[in-house]
Amino acid sequence: MKSSFSSLGRVNDWLALRLSRVTSSGSLIPEVDGLRFLAIAAVVFHHLVSIYLPATGRVERIASSADWFAAAADSWLILAAYCGHFGVNLFFVISGFILAIPFVKRALLNQPALPLRSYYLRRVTRIEPPYLICLIVYLLIKWHDGNDITGLLPSFAASSVYLHGPIFERESAINGVAWSLEIEIQFYLIVPLLMRGFNMRDVRFRRYSLLGAIILFGLLSQLYIYPHGPKWLMISLPNFMHYFLAGFLLADLYQVEGQRLRNRPWWGDLLAIGAAMAILWVLLGFGHLYFMLPILIAALYVGCYLGRIANRLIRMEWIVITGGMCYTIYLYHVMIISQAFVRTAQFSSTARSFELDFLYQCLLICPLILIISAILFVTTEKPFMKLSLGRRA
Q: In angstroms, rounded to a whole number, what is the distance separating the alpha carbons of residues 201 and 197?
């Protein structure tokens, strides 16, 4: 018996080592990857349900929020899955935090600015090769499925340089989730300029300025861009800037206050639960408060960092490891789900309850998502992750 447990432990350690990501500083903030897990789980859940419903004949299509709310009569899980689209916004806050950290450290310690050439080269090396590989894989699958590949080449070219939204004013025809990566790239380009705001020495003024900018961009998105803006603007940085700025605010709090507050107060768990419930509350019925969502996400993340139970959960080994693979999972999960449902939908039955039938499909498909994503992470992402770090890897 001991030998069996020892063998399982060695296998676990081997897998953990192969599937763990590497970082630019050589040190990992496990809470960040734990939060990435929450974000990618929400996105995958959203797409699992959105593909499951029409694939199994329960609804004709899921193309709008009205379709989601109409389908929700079958189960409360459908409403929960609808909220999963917000996982992308959770990622934006994390990106703002991660990109701000090295700049904030230098600004607060009066160190020389991060070399821009190094910053941009690392971003390109880290993000672009796995993304191009993914686009090629998607293009080949579409060609195999009978699509006109020559007609897709303009979309492929625009997507490869993160300009599909501005050029075609819609999501990528190659990989639909790439619209959010285009927004990330737009943000990467201006981060060094935005970080000059951390030269403000008055902490309160700096944080109030960030908070004001978050609310300002939130109101711009809610009152103008969504109801009146053109499509290209809806899938561009100005419509989501407030989420990245919330990450900046978290980076400021983490560097200045993080260690002082980190005594695992009980109110941290209450803050995490309350913020999560408030986010769902706004998403499902209080659209006039959308501009407050970045602040609620920041509160959720602070609660997860400070709370005893919440922190313990998001620091669990395989939650952290899976969160570290989120880029690969995000790039490929829609393709895996779509291809899997072609084969597994025949085992579905509308005679079963939604919850039972959907659980059955998840048991078939979710292991495939994890296994295929793990293989792709090791072969198409981690090598470039190491390359982007140079000798530090």
A: 9
CA dihedral 45, 48, 54, 60 (to 10 degrees): 30
Query: From CA 178, how far away is CA 182, in angstroms rounded?
Result: 6
Tell me: the pLDDT tens digits for 303-342? 999 999 999 999 999 999 999 999 999 999 999 999 999 8
With a cut of 70, which residues of the chain have pLDDT below it?
Answer: 1-9, 23-27, 113, 258-264, 390-393
Q: What's CA 264's distance to the chain center, in Å?
A: 26
Q: How high is the pLDDT of residue 392?
A: 47
The residue assigned the tokens 């193309």 is 63
Spatial CB neighbours of 375, under 8 Å, sequence gap ≥ 6: none
Complete DSSP assignment for 285-345? H-GGGGGGHHHHHHHHHHHHHH-HHHHHHHT-HHHHHHHHTHHHHHHHHHHHHHHHHHHHG
Token reading at 1: 């018996």
pLDDT at 224: 94
Q: How many CA atoms lie within 13 A of 263 on its CB side?
A: 3
Q: Tens digit of pLDDT for each residue in 339-360?
A: 999 899 888 888 889 999 999 9
CA distances from 243 to 83, 94, 222, 291, 357 (A): 17, 9, 13, 10, 36
Interatomic CA distance for residues 105 and 90, integer angstroms: 23
- Residue 185 tokens read as 């790239």
| Positive/negative CA dihedral, 144, 148, 150, 152 | negative
At 214 the pLDDT is 97
Sorted by sequence, the CB contacts under 8 Å of residue 209 that are 6+ apart come out as 197, 200
pLDDT reported for residue 163: 94
Domain residue ranges in the chain: 29-392
Closest CA to 214 of 232, 227, 230, 197: 197
Which pLDDT score, from 0 to 100, does residue 106 have?
A: 80
Q: CB atoms < 10 A from the CB of 295, how many? A: 18
Joined tokens for residue 342 = 């072609």
Helices (H) and strands (E) in the chain, counts: 20, 0
Contact 290, 221 (CB under 8 A): yes
